[in-house]
Design brief:
35% helix; globular; five-stranded parallel sheet; alpha/beta
Amino acid sequence: MEDLPEIDFLIVGAGFSGLVSAQRLCQAGFRCVVIDNRNHIGGNAYDCYDEAGVLIHPYGPHYFRSNSARIVSYLSQFTEWHEVSYQIKSFTQQKFWSFPINLNTFEEWLGRPSTELEWRDYLENQRIAIEHPQNSEEVILTQVGWDFYRMFFEPYTLKQWKRHPRELQASVCGRIPIRLNRDDRYLTESFQAMPAAGYTAMFEKMIEQSPGLVLRLNTSFAEEKPRWSYRHLIFTGPIDAYYDHCYGSLPYRSLRFERETYSGEELRAREAISGKPGLWQPALQVNYPDLEVPYTRTVEIKHATGQKIDATTVVREFPEDWTPDKEPFYPVPTDATAQLYARYKARADQETNVSFIGRLGTYRYYNMDQVTGMALTEAEKLLQKYQSTLSPSS
């Protein structure tokens, strides 16, 4: 029988989790193979230029932010940054609203100027007293009461998750802040920026600084696994798929995207609505909570990239049920799915030469900086485990 090529780490997935861990391990001299069934690197963070030359995010917007100097410093080895403040509006009742909810939203609702004191008093009178909120409905009702919950949260959640907010864990809607002042920033992390040349360019630099890395795209785990003799597997795909769904399938939500590009006179005419030269809509992201609208949001990533081009592309996102032929974008955070995932995790914890990392590997929603931190931490653990037992190539 022919001997298989020997490597140290087989890494499944060429997104943040896989490439960050591969870069760190390759820098230490280990032999790594990264495989991905897509035809590009970067996972869902992959970006590219469309037919009009607009830099787009094909798998939905990726808003990088972080409070971790360690993670920002690590990624800064591979990219310069374009600082940005991510802003969102919500469109309902035939007008744009400030979002997340803040004093400006309250004034728009009243139709007149107000004060922080009046806003606080209003919320005190509207909040529903629930000592320990158990789900997404309760966590919002304890903050803003029924009016704003029904206006911005309940219908949007029904579309996004195809589940009522009371069926979802409190963390789903709890991630969205409620502001008592005029702060209309979507995010508050100390560092908010986009890779200056895009995410794909950043990943390409990461690969360049991964000595000896073997990258195989358009390749499935099933066909590639038998080709290598490896000491450890890093798996960033769905954990239930790794175990052939032996306890049942974990549910996900998928997305469908529709893009429209505008330029020239058509774009000039729209600037009166956006209020911004060269841009179609008034904010990077506009949420559409109304159930009559089939999509949940529109994204114009040019707001964040700062690209100078006489064209812009707007992407509409349509949530869909996940099937095996679609991308699994969002784990569904309910008590039942948490219990099912716990069974897979218990089995995974028994593995001695397999690591499960990333959103799909841990069945949890993570931001990009959190995934980066997870991959770096796992790489450090593997370095400590294998440094003395392997003979890395120099």
